[in-house]
Amino acid sequence: MADEDPAVSVCFIVEIDDFKLGTFNSCEGLGCEVVMEQREEGGNNGYVWQLPSRIKYSNIKLSRPVTKDTEKVTRWIAGMVSGVTRKTGHISAMTADGRVVARWSLLDVVPVRWQGPSLNPETVKVATETLEIAHHGFLDPDRA
């Protein structure tokens, strides 16, 4: 039963194709939404059809304290100066002891935004970075 324990304290390993971006301690926006269209049928006043039309995927925001891996993110983004190419991405949720709890494979990943640390000598805070990526959906885990 230990393998079925929920992920209470996790970190997220991020890979874009063969580019390992390192470990992040926060992951937000991993999800999707089915857009529903409403159709009213003439003569049927007590019913509105709810028809699924498309799936929208939200951007994913990954955050962590600045580490040596920060250079990997900036190197990945700098490699797109001559043109943005969509890649396959993988986000793995791991427990503190290194077990993979869940893994999501993402189709056509592109960087949307990178926010580096705000460095201010007057406040003592951990320097953090945030990477925001967009994608076109999830890949079947058996094929990724």
TrEMBL record:
It comes from the Bacteria. GO terms for molecular function: structural molecule activity. Pfam families: Phage_T4_gp19. NCBIfam families: conserved hypothetical phage tail region protein. This is Phage tail protein. It comes from Streptomyces rubellomurinus (strain ATCC 31215).
